[in-house]
Specification:
The complex is a heterodimer of chains A (256) and B (404).
Chain A: E1 2-3, E2 8-13, E3 21-26, H1 37-42, E4 48-53, H2 69-80, E5 88-94, H3 96-107, E6 114-118, H4 129-152, H5 156-163, H6 166-169, H7 175-182, H8 187-192, E7 197-202, H9 210-219, E8 223-228, H10 241-255
Chain B: E1 6-13, H1 19-32, E2 38-45, E3 51-53, H2 67-72, E4 74-78, E5 86-89, E6 100-102, E7 105-108, H3 119-127, H4 136-143, H5 145-151, E8 163-166, H6 176-183, E9 190-194, E10 204-206, H7 209-223, E11 226-231, E12 236-246, E13 249-258, H8 267-271, H9 276-279, H10 287-291, E14 298-300, H11 306-322, E15 330-336, E16 342-348, H12 356-360, H13 369-386
Parallel strand pairs in B: 1-2, 1-7
Antiparallel strand pairs in B: 2-3, 3-4, 4-5, 5-6, 8-11, 9-10, 9-11, 12-13, 12-15, 13-14, 15-16
Helix pairs in contact in B: 6-7
Classes of the chains: A alpha/beta (256), B alpha+beta (404).
Chain lengths: 256, 404
């Protein structure tokens, strides 16, 4: 295992300086590099793999509170720049890791030859009127209760646990950062992407619904999208990963 | 993709002591089948023998289905007389009608009795339906460890000597004196194991006739009608390798060495460590869950002396050729770590998780799980085509009755 200044990472598979392809793996919110280990094991002999722990996850220390996905992308860029002389670079991201991938390809097009994004986030969700109302009601109720908490002796942390999403509840010291990141709209960055991009979504994904993917796919010029039946946001990394790996392997083959 | 998708019936469960493990393998296979090529559906054989299908069977958290859930599932029977692969639904009431459920091929994910042993293969042969893996006879031979040894007798593949012990026609008790008379001179310690079960169920180290008698009565004869007694291998290390034939070439997988070895390899160590796999319903898979439990307890591609590894692969090819050369069986070897002696132990025609992690890690040419299943299905059609005979197979000069 090796550590750069802000990102803990490790390399597996083929030797970095000899591999025709280097795959950089960016995990989702709340995960670590370990979530991609079964992927890199299956593809060990096809490429060199750079498994990252994003700042604030795994063995990487938390970033400053002011960070956005642009800062995450810049940190990844700084890490992978020395390897640019070697093989082509493919970035694989899941969910939040997909946001970082979009930023990376938009801000540092010289460093990324292709993107493979699984259950990728990056655009605000489209909800129906009832869904929007329900989310807004939950947020306003929480904010109101938070302000009233000192008066009524309420525990703010308990309120967070009751009203927050799973990622929000577990965000800990990254909570401020999390709120900013989920509000980001990466439409403009997606439009700037020029490298080949493949989007994969579980058809039953409730966290990043496929409609986000279809909108992203329209924004990214050189891209395509696939829905995997009976899969959701998490099973695409679990039992459903084998089909994802198969797609990724043929995507990699085309890049070589 | 304009091509019509193939309908794949994935069969698992069954009246086997390894039924639970088979459920895990079956569900893994359904999710690993490429949705661009296939429309896969589950066919779960309950332990009472009922064949069931339905969307709830795709969820691990729904096993083992209780009475309430089973009523919502569709009960099936295989149509043995149809010219094309067809299941028939069994009406649950007199108001319902039986429906036809056509499909193209059956993918077997059974482990152990009534599924991996030729029984279900025989049913699908009778129905003339393409199915994956070893054929009927090869499956039956592999399931019986004594039959496997007999088949390999002239091949030069080393196997341990053994003695058979059959379950009495009545009861399951054989006294130590009866055993002594039956087996003659025995050098203890020995390894006592069921002849027809996998997954180390019932395997025990025994040091005298009394222990043999006790183990047979308390464990082995509850699940199997035959046991075999072998010399106990000291300093035991196991090496397993999977093997298959693709495009006319026999290929071996990575070799695995189970990490924990002791006098008694425990079923739970083998299949249930890692925890998450049985729980189901968890939204976020832990890396362990993602990896699958089988890969947790073993070392893949251990460092081996080149000559030893060459022998294992050479013997594996010989065994594979003698057991029919189809499917992707895992072949298990026993080794005395100190002396370096090795013996072929058993063949598993349908290994846990189809041994996909061994294929992913194959040194020569890694195979992804989805591709492994593609090849198994292609092979099922090829073997089925090979076995076809004319609709009226009686030669004209052997016909005794006029065809009307």
């Amino acid at each position: 295992m090796e550590n750069s200044k802000t990102i803990a990472y490790e390399t597996t598979g083929l030797a970095l300086d000899k591999a025709p392809l280097i795959v950089v793996w960016g995990h989702g919110w709340g995960h670590t590099r370990n979530v991609f280990r079964p992927f890199t094991e299956a593809l060990a002999q096809c490429a060199a793999h750079l498994l990252l722990d994003f700042p604030g996850f795994g063995l990487s220390p938390p970033p400053p509170e002011t960070w956005t996905t642009a800062d995450y992308a810049d940190a990844v860029a700084a890490l992978i720049r020395p390897y640019r002389k070697g093989g082509k670079i493919l970035y694989v991201g899941h969910s939040f890791g997909g946001r970082v991938g979009i930023q990376l390809a938009a801000r540092h097009p010289d460093l990324v030859d292709a993107l493979f994004l699984i259950g990728c986030a990056g655009l605000p969700r489209k909800r129906g009127p009832i869904g929007t109302l329900s989310v807004k009601a939950r947020i306003y109720t929480f904010k109101t209760l938070k302000h009233l908490a000192p008066l009524f002796g309420l525990n703010v942390e308990k309120l967070r646990q009751k009203f927050g999403s799973a990622d929000y509840r577990s965000a800990g010291v990254l909570r401020t950062l999390f709120i900013r990141i989920i509000a980001e709209n990466l439409s403009e960055q997606a439009r700037q992407i020029k490298c080949p991009t493949h989007f994969v979504y579980g058809a039953n994904d409730a966290d990043t619904p496929p409609e986000i993917g279809f909108r992203l796919q329209k924004l990214v010029k050189n891209s395509d999208i696939e829905l995997l039946p009976n899969q959701d946001h998490h099973t695409v990394l679990g039992d459903g990963r084998h089909v994802v790996i198969k797609r990724l392997a043929s995507f990699m083959e085309k890049l070589k | 993709m304009s091509e019509k998708k193939l309908k794949v019936a994935v069969l698992f469960g069954g009246r086997s002591p390894e039924s639970d493990v088979s459920i895990v393998t079956g569900l893994q296979a359904i999710k690993a089948l490429d949705p661009e090529r296939y429309e896969a559906f589950p066919v779960y054989i309950a332990q009472d023998g009922e064949w069931l299908t339905g969307a709830p069977l795709l969820e691990r958290s729904n096993y083992i289905p209780g009475k309430e859930l089973r009523e919502k599932l569709t009960s099936l029977i295989l149509d043995l007389s149809s010219q094309t692969p067809t299941f028939l639904t069994r009406p649950r009431s007199f108001l319902q009608k039986s429906k036809k459920l056509p499909f193209d091929v059956a993918l077997f994910a059974f482990h152990g009795l009534v599924g991996e042993d030729g029984c279900v293969q025989g049913v699908f042969e009778t129905a003339n339906v393409p199915y994956t893996g070893a054929r009927l006879l090869d499956s039956a031979v592999c399931m019986d460890k004594t039959a496997t040894k007999k088949m390999l007798a002239s091949t030069g593949v080393p196997v341990l000597p053994y003695k058979e012990i059959k379950k009495p026609e009545t009861g399951s008790l054989i006294t130590p004196d009866e055993l002594k008379a039956m087996l003659g001179d025995v050098v203890f310690p020995c390894c006592l194991k069921p002849a027809n079960l996998g997954s180390s169920i019932g395997v025990a180290r025994v040091t005298n006739f009394q222990e043999i008698s006790d183990t047979l009565a308390s464990t082995i004869f509850r699940f199997d009608y035959m046991a075999l007694l072998e010399p106990f291998v000291e300093n035991l290390v196991e090496y397993n390798v999977a093997i298959r034939c693709a495009n006319g070439h026999v290929q071996t997988s990575a070799i695995e060495r189970p990490k924990r070895h002791s006098e008694l390899l425990d079923f739970k160590t083998k299949y249930l460590s890692g925890g998450g796999t049985k729980s189901g319903g968890s939204k976020t898979p832990s890396p362990q869950e993602s990896q699958g439990m089988l890969s947790l307890t073993r070392e893949i591609n251990p460092s081996l002396p080149p000559e030893f590894e060459k022998n294992i692969r050479k013997w594996a090819e010989k065994v594979f050729t003698h057991i029919g050369g189809s499917g992707c069986p895992r072949l298990d070897f026993l080794c005395n770590e100190k002396t370096g002696e090795a013996w072929f132990n058993e063949a598993n025609p349908i290994p846990g998780s189809f041994g996909y992690f061994l294929w992913e890690a194959a040194k020569e040419k890694p195979i992804l799980f989805s591709n492994l299943l593609d090849d198994l299905i292609d092979e099922a059609f090829a073997l089925h085509r090979r076995q076809q005979i004319p609709l009226d197979p009686t030669p004209e000069d052997a016909r005794l009755f006029p065809r009307k």
